[in-house]
Amino acid sequence: MSYGARVTSSARTSAPTGAASPEPRQPVAAWLPVAAGAVTLLLWASAFVAIRHLGSDVPPGALSLGRLLIAAAALGALLLTRPSGTRRWPARRHVPLLLLCGAAWFGIYNLALNAAEQRIDAGTAALVVQVGPILVALLATVFLGEQLHRWLVIGMGVGFAGVVVIAQASSGHESGDLTGVLLAVVAAATYAVGVLSQKPVLQSAGPLETTFLACVIGAVVCLPWAGELVDVAGTASVGTVLGVVYLGLLPTAVAFTTWAYALSHTNASTLALTTFLVPFLAAALAWPLLDEVPPLLAFVGGTLCIAGVLLTRRRPRAEVAAPVPDDDVTA
């Protein structure tokens, strides 16, 4: 999902720090990064299915808060195992951007996605969120001064045409409606804001520290639903509670860790392309687990969204002549 793009930004920004480490990186078996990447994709895909499954028992706000609290606790415990001298916290000048990242990407994103999946199936939601990287590229032209070249414009047109196709497919499907698609677009938009605000923060802070703090900020945004979460915790079945724990622990805490590991041993741009498998993995998991499949037209729209993202990554001929550093590529 678009998820790969946001983690890619983290790893690319933090790469110079890792390269400057006094301890040389130990060689690893070639299959380990591949396995770590595969685990990440499966966990992220499973998150869409878990959210959809829990939607009938846990309201969007309570689900968001519960997931973020569990993820923050897990990441905080991991940070405590590190020597204090190795932790890198954000610089004071980056605090406003960190607040924006946590509020938009971790807070509002989760609220919008959870609400969307109460109206549309897991596979369709994952397909719509794929428009996120296109929004990142668009916002980068406004706030980072990047060039608005013709491939970006063409890619945006193709990608948003895909969203329209998905909306049309969902509006006439028994498992979805237009409001659900629009909520998924809101999730994609807040993800894009999170990516752009996160990148400068990672100039001074480590990815793990940044993710932990963003989870805490997102949880604060979701605090108005604390009463809802208490009610759910008091009445929910063991299976529902375990589902919320799963979302916070595995697709959030563990998946970010395995993705960072894979990224540290693999080309960032190449690995980011594998995240396009997430919507199709989500649909494949939802079929046996939830007995639901997105309408065929939604897959057509999703393919257009992915094609749009790929088009925005193309460069005009003048730029192709000069190689673009990997850490300058907007996923």
What descriptors fit this protein?
Drug/metabolite transporter (DMT)-like permease, mainly alpha, globular, disordered C terminus
Description:
This protein has 15 helices and no strands. It has helices at about 5-20, 30-55, 60-80, 95-115, 120-130, 130-145, 150-170, 180-200, 205-220, 225-235, 240-265, 270-275, 280-290, 295-310, 315-320. Helix 1 runs parallel beside helix 8 and helix 4 (about 95-115) crosses helix 9. It comes from Nocardioides zeae. This is Drug/metabolite transporter (DMT)-like permease.
What is the chain-wise order of helices and strands?
HHHHHHHHHHHHHHH
Q: What's the helix count? A: 15
Class inferred from helices and paired strands: mainly alpha
Helix content: over 70%
Total beta strands:
0
Distance between the termini: 11 Å
Q: Using only CA atoms, what is the Rg?
A: 19 Å
Provide the β-strand percentage band. Answer: under 5%
Q: Which regions have little confidence, pLDDT < 50, spanning 5+ residues?
A: 1-25, 320-331
Please tell me what the overall shape is: globular
Q: What number is the mean pLDDT?
A: 79
Count of folded domains: 1
> What does the largest sheet look like?
none
Protein name: Drug/metabolite transporter (DMT)-like permease
Organism: Nocardioides zeae
